[in-house]
Amino acid sequence: MPQGTLLYAQSGGVTAVINATAAAVLQAARGRRVRVLGAHNGILGALREDLIDASALAPAEVKALFHTPGGVFGSCRLKLKSLDVDRAKYERLLEVFRAHDVRWFLYNGGNDSADTALKVSRLAEEFGYPLTCVGVPKTIDNDLALTDCCPGFGSAAKYTAVSVRECALDVAAMAETSTKVFIYEAMGRHAGWLAAAGGLAGSGRDAAPHLILFPERPFDEADFLARVQATVRRVGHCVVVASEGIRDGDGRFIDEVAAADAFGHVQLGGVGSHLAARVEHALGLKVHWAIPDYLQRSARHIASRTDLEQAQAVGRAAVDCALAGHNGVMPVIVRDSDAPYRWHIDIAPLERIANREKKLPKNFIRADGYGITAAARRYLSPLIAGEAAPPYAADGLPAYVTPSLRFVKRRLPRFDPAG
Length: 419
Ligand code: F6P
Hints:
Elements: E1 5-10, H1 18-31, E2 35-39, H2 43-48, E3 51-53, H3 59-65, H4 87-99, E4 102-109, H5 111-127, E5 132-137, H6 153-174, E6 181-186, H7 193-198, E7 211-213, H8 221-235, E8 238-243, E9 256-260, E10 266-268, H9 271-283, E11 287-290, H10 294-298, H11 305-323, E12 329-337, E13 342-349, H12 374-380
Parallel strand pairs: 1-2, 1-4, 4-5, 6-8, 6-11, 7-8
Antiparallel strand pairs: 2-3, 9-10, 12-13
This protein binds 6-O-phosphono-beta-D-fructofuranose.
């Protein structure tokens, strides 16, 4: 049995399949006879020494995590600043690691979390503490550099494409006497990947969605309203997919609902209702809108099988990387071919992933700025392929699991991360 403990933490917004990554980590570590601790609520738990004995989870509970959304150990939005500013916190992390003989740290998150994992690995080196830090990718925003796609995205993309297709049928049925415009708001604060996935709902000039609004293109209200009107005249109705992150020509978000969080991100959400009000007021058309918000992030019932497989693969690969001593890296997904879709896992350095955002490439957005191209379809289609429905219980609901978590005894004085 290798000496030492592996600490696994989840960070940032959870996904429908992040627990599949956790389960893969637990199974892989179990197979290598490595003890695993889970940090409660991400890095916060590591700072507070709120650590869960993840190896104590029953094999049946671990198995059920493969089909359970949410974040089993809890996640958080807490960005550690530079080593100079937040040095006390980084040093506290190392104290906690030392106290529990943590030799491998797996941080499952997005680009901000990659930055934290990288800084922890650098400080450990500086202190001569033997630690291997590995980032594990996940984000429904699909905006991590170097990986072809991010676990969590494929399932949120499938939810988006399916929902847009279903709502479009509803609107089409009612349009003559009722709703003429339907607006679907997709998450993805700075990058239009999920909005683009809405484009998979249909193809052809008159198929829904008729208009997609991307954060990569400045929003021009007059042009948008004119296109809505023209589509309603031509097709009878208009289905719009709007990214929550669309901005005006000056780069200001069209809709911010709250001040910045600890990552420095403002809370978005509500652009759908804003656009609906503008369409109603300016064009006098009846509008419905949907803000699926966390529904798209947690929709495990309609997960993509491809996404689920990739979420597990990065978890297994992260354990392999850690035990092989690959420090400051992240397992990434490499696409070998579109059709048939083939991929494999490679390793990339965290310093080339931390704090970078991958936007939708220009050749994925149609020349008029309101739709996706064939290249985007080739990229997106395999990511939503395959079904992976959870088992359902007799009450008609998915048989999700909420394991009871056993916290390990603290060995250090308390620490207040806010202090
Ligand atoms: O995890 C990514 C994301 O879902 C974004 O698309 C969205 O803007 C954000 O998280 C919402 O974050 P929070 O739950 O912290 O408000």
